[in-house]
């Protein structure tokens, strides 16, 4: 089940990357690059940091084809996509959570400590979007937007907590997934934000 | 032969990095850093993603010395360099192609699949320039410029296609090189560009 | 001794990251991310490039807790911090030097060549700040500021030179530390800068 959600997730992330590339007037090659980086960059950074070789996508050519196709398709259907805004937000939330759970699992399977597993889950969830924004020359959205990265944190903590309690992995995945999705949708619906830290003082 | 072209390539890339640093008024240390990252960053990212340790340049101190020297030399001769614009563009094209071919070969020697080899070639070819632009706080040029990254793709596909046909590696390298160089020079000459994707709609 | 300085160093770097995040009005999650990346990003890049797995911080959960706590604490005490500017600058200088010495040592322990050890020291010293600035969408300060990255270079060269002369490691560390700190403080005090390279010519 998580695999299906994962495939939907990288597709949706690729599309969000393609739209960001379009906002910078990139050519279609740039669109493909940003789509790829947005969808698979988070997992790549996780695998690098955990020393988990070979990197996951290098063993799954179908992921590469999928995300690049999704990116290029987006250039054609972009004009109609805002009608699907709500569907898109839900799929994006599901992707964020799937990424986080997969990241946690990879780290735990490699016997990393709990805190590193949480970091790995969050890296998988948010680094793709951070790379997208850096390549599009803007401050990463995930560091400023309404509860997004925090959802990833909550999902990872919930998953690891239930695991420590000895809950069966499948049930645990389902519960963490449902909990994270509920939180994210509530956050979108209510416009929940974390407090912001503003600091304008110059020391020089 | 490819080694000589490679050394020219990293020199030229280092110089392009130094000029980009100059546009941002960096100090000479910054110039050295950007020269290094532009010239050797693409190969570094390729080696990281393929899990190819030790990273190539760590075994070749002479590359480090070469690219930093080229970067610093550029600060002295920059004012005369625009006279050499055409030479520079040709050398840059040769470098892009050499990088791509080397990247492909490294991945194939590690038994990665064809599609990963193509990705590795492109990463080697374009990631150095992307890192340069990110560090200089601009949207990567390679994602917007006239046929550049696409030349890398064509070269990789050509090289791997001929290899599948059983063509001898030396001949294959020469043919792919010539094909890529022709395409790149035609693209510069004709100002060929890929179609651009513009998307200005905000969803919020 | 170097461990204590190292812990102070990552705390100070985390705080500088948090202030940079505050200048971009990030939420507290973003503050934690930037604090983490600034403090531990340099060592991460060094470990990746050297192929030194597992990455150091993944084995030290206390580092993760420390830097994130320091980042979050900064949001509370930021308004008083400019009174401590001088203390902060000295601690920051000590951190830069500790990072550089640790980076050198890691590379030497892995039998990398001298020039790679120098690069490793500098990567540890300056890459955290570079990542911080890239994520905050500005040209890295270390590439433009008064003698900073160069201090890292001097420390690495000094440390390796004394090591080649057969000086005992503890004495060597103390001497390199003192030398680097003196240089950095003199540079701040005198406003020493490297010459800048400005290049505004467009070729297009």
TrEMBL record, chains A, B, C:
GO cellular component: plasma membrane
Annotated keywords: Cell membrane, Membrane, Transmembrane, Transmembrane helix
Family matches, as Pfam families: Gly_transporter
Transmembrane helix among keywords: yes
Its membrane topology: Multi-pass membrane protein
Annotated transmembrane regions: 63-80, 87-108, 114-135, 147-167
Keyword Transmembrane part of the UniProt annotation: yes
Family classification: Belongs to the UPF0126 family.
PANTHER family: INNER MEMBRANE PROTEIN, UPF0126 INNER MEMBRANE PROTEIN YADS-RELATED
UniProt-recorded name of the protein: Membrane protein
Organism field: Skermanella aerolata
Lineage, highest ranks first: Bacteria, Pseudomonadati, Pseudomonadota, Alphaproteobacteria, Rhodospirillales
């Amino acid at each position: 089940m998580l695999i299906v959600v994962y495939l939907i997730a990288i597709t949706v992330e690729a599309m969000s990357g393609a739209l960001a590339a379009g906002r910078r007037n990139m050519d279609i090659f740039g669109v493909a690059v940003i789509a790829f980086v947005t969808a698979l960059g988070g997992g790549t950074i996780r695998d690098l940091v955990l020393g988990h070789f070979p990197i996951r996508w290098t063993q799954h050519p179908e992921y590469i084809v999928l995300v690049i196709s999704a990116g290029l398709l987006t250039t054609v259907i972009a004009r109609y996509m805002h009608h699907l805004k709500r569907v898109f937000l839900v799929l994006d939330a599901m992707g964020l959570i799937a990424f986080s759970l997969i990241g946690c699992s990879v780290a735990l399977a490699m016997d990393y400590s709990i805190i590193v597993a949480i970091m790995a889950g969050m890296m998988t969830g948010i680094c793709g979007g951070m790379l997208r924004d850096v390549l599009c020359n803007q401050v990463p959205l995930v560091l400023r937007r309404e509860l997004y990265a925090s959802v990833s944190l909550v999902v990872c903590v919930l998953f690891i907590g239930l695991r420590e309690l000895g809950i069966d992995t499948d049930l645990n995945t389902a519960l963490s997934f449902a909990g994270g999705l509920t939180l994210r949708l509530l956050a979108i619906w209510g416009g929940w934000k974390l407090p912001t830290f503003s600091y304008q003082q110059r020391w020089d």
